[in-house]
């Protein structure tokens, strides 16, 4: 089982590739899969600002592209201002909580969500079910397992 530190390290390495020239706020996400492998993503902004994608959403869609949507067990997220050493943890935005919930319910498990700052600092750990209580998801439509 990959420890939270390794997952956060992977997220931090991914954040170095964030495409965020507009907000100058880099986010990296790393997803731990059942076989111990890690899938990463970064925020991916666009000159048409509203088209921008969050790191957690990019990582989740990337896991899905390998047929691994239901195999996600934990998430590591870091974020902070580019060129700074922000130590405060960031937590996933509301939309990303909903996207992660799709994976959680398809996989039939709750997810551990580890959060940290771009520049380091402590790792704060949550359950996705605490970050998004009473979630609506595929289970409500009779699809997938039940997280
Ligand atoms: N962002 C993420 O990638 N994930 C989140 O959970 C919160 C926000 C990105 C979106 C945008 O590119 C930048 O952070 C500033 O909002």
Automatic annotation (TrEMBL):
Top-level lineage group: Bacteria
Protein name from the UniProt record: Cytidine deaminase
Any one annotated GO CC term: cytosol
Family stated for the protein in its record: Belongs to the cytidine and deoxycytidylate deaminase family.
NCBIfam families listed in its UniProt record: PRK05578.1 (NF004064)
Species of origin: Sphingomonas hengshuiensis
One Gene Ontology biological process: pyrimidine-containing compound metabolic process
Gene3D superfamilies assigned: Cytidine Deaminase, domain 2
MF annotations from Gene Ontology: cytidine deaminase activity; zinc ion binding
Domain CMP/dCMP-type deaminase residue range list: 2-139
Coiled-coil regions listed: none
